[in-house]
Amino acid sequence: MESNPFNPEMIVILAPGLPATRRRRIRERLESVGATVSVVDGAERQYLELRGEIAALQTIAIDGWPGVDKVIVLGESAMHWAPDDEADCAPIQVAGQTIGQGEFTIIAGPCAIEDEERALRIAGRVEAAGANLFRGGAYKPRTSPYAFQGLGKDALPILEKVRNQTGLGIITEVLDPRDVERISQVADMLQVGSRNMHNYSLLKELGQASTPVLLKRGFSSTIDEWLMAAEYILSGGNSMVVLCERGIRCAAASRKVVLDLGAISELKKRTHLPIFVDPSHGSGEAYRVPSLAKAAVAAGADGVLIEVHDQPSEALSDGRQALTPEQFEKLVPELYSIRTALGETGTQFSEQVVGSSSGEDH
Amino acid sequence: MESNPFNPEMIVILAPGLPATRRRRIRERLESVGATVSVVDGAERQYLELRGEIAALQTIAIDGWPGVDKVIVLGESAMHWAPDDEADCAPIQVAGQTIGQGEFTIIAGPCAIEDEERALRIAGRVEAAGANLFRGGAYKPRTSPYAFQGLGKDALPILEKVRNQTGLGIITEVLDPRDVERISQVADMLQVGSRNMHNYSLLKELGQASTPVLLKRGFSSTIDEWLMAAEYILSGGNSMVVLCERGIRCAAASRKVVLDLGAISELKKRTHLPIFVDPSHGSGEAYRVPSLAKAAVAAGADGVLIEVHDQPSEALSDGRQALTPEQFEKLVPELYSIRTALGETGTQFSEQVVGSSSGEDH
Amino acid sequence: MESNPFNPEMIVILAPGLPATRRRRIRERLESVGATVSVVDGAERQYLELRGEIAALQTIAIDGWPGVDKVIVLGESAMHWAPDDEADCAPIQVAGQTIGQGEFTIIAGPCAIEDEERALRIAGRVEAAGANLFRGGAYKPRTSPYAFQGLGKDALPILEKVRNQTGLGIITEVLDPRDVERISQVADMLQVGSRNMHNYSLLKELGQASTPVLLKRGFSSTIDEWLMAAEYILSGGNSMVVLCERGIRCAAASRKVVLDLGAISELKKRTHLPIFVDPSHGSGEAYRVPSLAKAAVAAGADGVLIEVHDQPSEALSDGRQALTPEQFEKLVPELYSIRTALGETGTQFSEQVVGSSSGEDH
Amino acid sequence: MESNPFNPEMIVILAPGLPATRRRRIRERLESVGATVSVVDGAERQYLELRGEIAALQTIAIDGWPGVDKVIVLGESAMHWAPDDEADCAPIQVAGQTIGQGEFTIIAGPCAIEDEERALRIAGRVEAAGANLFRGGAYKPRTSPYAFQGLGKDALPILEKVRNQTGLGIITEVLDPRDVERISQVADMLQVGSRNMHNYSLLKELGQASTPVLLKRGFSSTIDEWLMAAEYILSGGNSMVVLCERGIRCAAASRKVVLDLGAISELKKRTHLPIFVDPSHGSGEAYRVPSLAKAAVAAGADGVLIEVHDQPSEALSDGRQALTPEQFEKLVPELYSIRTALGETGTQFSEQVVGSSSGEDH
After folding, report:
1. Degrees to nearest 5, angle at CA D181 with D177 and D187
2. What's residue C184's pLDDT?
């Protein structure tokens, strides 16, 4: 992993009346891991302002030290996902489609590739309806070892054929670091599913790849954890990461998860990475998908990922949440009409949001 | 509480090979509480199909009885909130504003009434910007007993003055069953806050009132629990209930709660009650409010409830999430342009959603 | 509500390079609400150390002010629940039973009072088995308005008879502020259920009462919120509050809630209030109750609240989680044998926990 | 993966009045995937009782089919983790220590191996205090790519030396399927951490291994998902799986997670696999660990996993939750005294719990 220029500003609040020997010990220990320490005297306590290498400062749990009351981390400006990291702002292209940067992207297709004929048929329908990229699972992570696990490598030639016949770029999921290279030969974009957001071996391998990655949010992961998962890929050298919100688990939710559309404005403020939304997994039932897809667009998403199957009731996985091609054809123009109504390109939206948040009254 | 015509269809699945004496005991007990029992013989077990009074069947935890494997409730058709309960479908009017039925409603105002001058000033601004109703808290439920609890009854004359000067209908929160009558004399709509969704004493009192009620979802309540809270009011005789989604707690959420916009399509299918959304509490920070307000409209909400304060940084409560009048003025036309883009009235949307869910492929 | 001597230590961290005019404005505003402000100059930013009245400082959302980066609250020492608030440390007595202070209390009885004969029969059994207090619901909060709501005031004479015949003190739930006085005439302890932990009208009324209160944790409430709910009662003048953990909602839980036994050691450290546990609601199924009751004792609980019914399958509510008298008789000596094994009285345990947490290595 | 003998009993409840053609279509489709279908005629609807291969029945989302109201799965008896699967009940031995079967196991050691000297020093202390196995991370999954990631393969010789010098068996975490073989050469037991419970590539690889596996619960995973993760390993041929509860995320939790001790009795009933508890991750702070460790033992855990560090404030990871050797020495006899007080061996406990749950009154 390349060296990282992160230069955090941390503030360590010491306990009141801490003996000088203990204060010195704390300071020495901080300096021994490379921190630059500036001491500030308060009325009854000291504050230590720190600068230094994140690698060193994060390995030590400063807030657990005796005599330390609180540790505050104020800056995240040197993370690769931070909005002002110009070097990482190169536009992401997937099979000729620009991702983010004011462009709107629709990814559609079945949960899993079941057979060639069906894959081609669905791909033809979604392409005609306005999809920009085709999704279809080759390797499927399933809760039960006895459930359909996808066709595996046998699905890869089918995906290749879909691209050749429809011209649509291909996105498919990767589960195992040993498969990254093989799948990259076929796919234009690699998906990391929700269950693998914390699979750091896989993320590190993807950091070495030169294929764009769609990184879904872990189903119980915070935004901070999600961005740090992206950092595993970005810091490895692969700057082409797209975030995809797909719903988080919640005790009160009626369908397992709640789609966190509020994450969009927060992410637009904190990162330059494009933000996609998966209203299919985010709702769990087909009848709820159009409402949430439209909401995602209105909230400012750069793209959506929608499961489409021509016979949902026959699907080998996730049929319950798949739209039919007819439902998808009806939905696409609605999504574009919301984009038009808002007069938005992604870039303008981003500026507007960040602008409004820096106003005097927040 | 009036007698209720609920006539559920429940199915009780008995354990395989259950002795006849035990089966008879179960049947007798069900009949003793008024159920009509139809016995179905399976290959190795019996099924009991039940009809009867919900009041009787719900008081006994049938699924805990020895010999009972599962209890399935199939119907909710006789609940007052069920979509086919015609008697309850009378349109709700609040100060001349039709709620739902294809009409879109914007409620705006400060979290709490702080003083008369400020209340009138904010009300003037939101009225000019396009708000339909004015919100302002008199009684405030606060986590700390030492936090500002609202002006209480001293705020009521101020709310009355706001209505007289602006013509806006007034909505304000009620916390205590003993206050329902007094507040109803001033308010056009009573709000039940998230913390009181399970306060059944209060809900029963509101069932006796003749003022419309905005019922916020408990911050950790399921949709089923929320609808049953509405049923407490509806079954008491007050048919004017509006549901308001305001975010539910979630471990992975970055700002305490996640706004559950997926609830809208589910509620549109299950109930005729209008659905509002509160993007202010649902986001917790002003910069996230416009994105979520637009998303709520695109998802099909019948109205939104937005906190507006002319000096958010001086607000006595919730200032962090309040829009300024300027931000509100910018947002309102965006909300309407989404409505227009979708060519929707609430009624049409409702039909479309329900229609799409009844298709062959779901 | 009486004046409160809370004297927090808060630290406001200002943004780097904040203009002097803004800094002055912030300082003036803080002083205008009564804070004493001490300014500390850091290398690039200022810190403001505050002391003052909590009532004033909590009404203003300081962390939302422009120019404020963070607000840290360091002290909670003046809350009535804080361990060093000697005035509030008077022992709680319920019908001759000391609560906490090294004594262990077992509360047992049915979820709801169903009829006099059954109540007396169950009370006789649990008294003989070693219960110290009898629980039985008169007013029941139920999710459905059609479910059994308890016998209401008709249950009160039954509770009185139970006390007269068995000598057990009585605890029962109160739902409505208008019922506090009436129920207090019969009950030795009033229970606030999970759904009403945020019902501040009720809590304020209980603050005026002279009956001990068992305050259950809201099913999605943090420990901070729970302690502040206790503060509503304590600050009103009623110092007899017992906290009762009963499980919190969690997306991954198999039975609705997870019993948060980790709360015990945290509460022992932060408050002098006795801590009880309700393993019946905390598990939802009778077979899981003994395991969790024993765990609660081992974790240091001052008491447990266990539902017992002589015919759980006939119970009008919560039968699934009730122990039979036989199961309860088997459990009680196990609970005491754990107490003995640990050589603990509540007081010693408390000292041990607080002591171990103040060691050098935490 | 070997063929699986699972023979579920599922019941499909059809919609009332479903046309015969649709009913036939459903039946044909079920039979086409290998199900044996028995049709039961209810008063207004049909029920289909199914038997068949789980692999086929789980690949099709029957409950999403038109005309299907509900699908009930009644049996899980053929899963490898099910308690009556005798073939899988062979005792698990780790370095001479029997796991479960009435034996109690204490695993202790630092979060991460930092250097040889410290590892040996801590190992000596925990061995002397009564630990049965030594834990120490070589490969560490960290949220940030810049945090200390463990010494990796350089830690393996250190672990080997610990075993040679102390005689303690070694348990360490595996993150990557490519590391399973290498780590197995050194470790007596492989740990799958919470973040990887859903990493099916890793689980499949472990199914091919002949080293016992400690499978931690995903931090937002249900018990069903956890057992199915175990099934990935068991069905691959490795029958030596130990489950370890370590806390689940919860919105109301004060320290990220809540330790779900209620899972113990449920798992004792549903599976023969031994159940361990990790009170260190389950509490997040050292002062809370003893209380939860004792609670785990009282609840019936077969073992505990406790982080011990001789200088917690200097630890490179998780220092905040580590006990000192002194604290650990004080805790161990308390754990055993609870075991003694309960007169329990794991086996007896298991019988008691299962026994009590099969009684007439549940």
Report:
1. 110
2. 97
